Amino acid sequence: MNIAICGANGFIGSRLAEAFGKRGDTVVPLGRALFSDRQRSRLEQLIRPCEVVVNVAGAPIDKRWTTAYKQTLYASRVGVTRRLVEAINSGGATRLFISASAVGIYPHVGCYDEGAMQQGHGFLARLCAAWEHEARQLRGDVRLAVTRFGVVLAPHGGAFARLARMGRLKTEAVIGNGWQPLSWIDREDLVRAMIFLTENGQLSGTFNFTAPERLTQKEFMREVARHYGALLLPVPGFAVKMFYGEASQFLLQGQCAVPARLTEAGFEFLTPDLDTFLRRLGGA
Predict the structure, then answer these.
(1) CA distance 99 to 7
(2) For the segment 191-220, what is each residue's pLDDT rounded down to a tens digit?
(3) pLDDT at 284 over 70
(4) 10 Å Cβ neighbour count for 268?
């Protein structure tokens, strides 16, 4: 197939592009410059022959949320998704649009599958809701899959790279009280789940892209510290708030999300729990 990927050079998109390429698909990367007003027709031309469009673009969330950076977060998610949907709706071969979102849409208390109607409060939940709203403006004859990511893990890059560096220095951190839920997914499982959606034409709607295991942040960090033989140190919540400001909610609250729809559809996780991920890393 011809598959357009927005965010093809990023941490997730680059691995996704590689996997589709190995499968024999033609990958069409959609760079940032294509989302200006002047490039609207060019974006439509590139998307028109693509049977699948995947959007995994978005500015990093783990930075201080100044007013200006909030606008950047909205533009890189909501604005980009709006342009993609407009391009797909203009006509062409697209039959599947996979649009990323995040488990940050859920409340930080409780555990949720895709049937949950509850939405969290605060900036992150509002951002995810607006992001998904734009995706759902898709024309009716195109299948839509909204994929809500947990924290994406890989041996190199992303959030785990920082944990690995700290582990080699023999320290790891529990943030705040550590009881906040932490939903995560191995990047390889994320890529496999994306391919699974392209191969199963009856699947549409919302999917939690998270490992089946449920962990708190303290439980997660305890396993990581054990792997590296590291000392687990507390980081007070007030210190996180001083450093990150409003963005500290991303670290101090968290969400619990379960991948009910992927599991029901027959998807099998290669990394269903953190112990499996850490054992695959080998020695510390």
Answers:
(1) 11
(2) 999 999 999 999 999 999 999 999 999 999
(3) no
(4) 10
Q: How confident is the model at residue 157 (pLDDT cuts 50, 70, 90)?
A: confident
* pTM score, whole prediction: 0.95
Instruction: Please tell me the predicted confidence (pLDDT) of residue 281.
Output: 86
> Mind spelling out the 3-state secondary structure of the chain?
CEEEEECCCCCCHHHHHHHHHHHCCEEEEECHHHHCHHHHHHHHHHHCCCCEEEECCCCCCCCCCCHHHHHHHHHHHHHHHHHHHHHHHCCCCCCEEEEEEEHHHCCCCCEECCCCCCCCCCHHHHHHHHHHHHHCCCCCCCEEEEEEECEEECCCCHHHHHHHHHHHCCEEEEECCCCCEECEEEHHHHHHHHHHHHHCCCCCEEEEECCCCCEEHHHHHHHHHHHHCCEEEEECHHHHHHHHHHHHHHHHCCCEECCHHHHHCCCCCCCCCHHHHHHHHCCC
Amino acid in position 267 = F
